[in-house]
Description:
Strand order of the largest sheet: 1-3-2
Oligomer: single chain
Strand content: 25-35%
Radius of gyration: 12 Å
Distance between the termini: 5 Å
Order of helices and strands: EHHEE
Low-confidence stretches: none
Largest sheet: 3 strands, antiparallel
Amino acid sequence: MKSVLEVTLDAGALKDDPAGEPGRILRYWAGHVRHCPLRPGDRSDVYESGYRDVGERRVVDS
């Protein structure tokens, strides 16, 4: 099983702050992952600080 966090780096706040915004997203998901069912097929949208959808977090079979 793999947990995949995929974000588009040239959209919204990520484009404006390419070093800081991915760090914010990673910190959020690092703290939130314990609330997620870690089973294949589980997924969530990923939002940047302006609440725009910039990717997804998903669990897949290896």
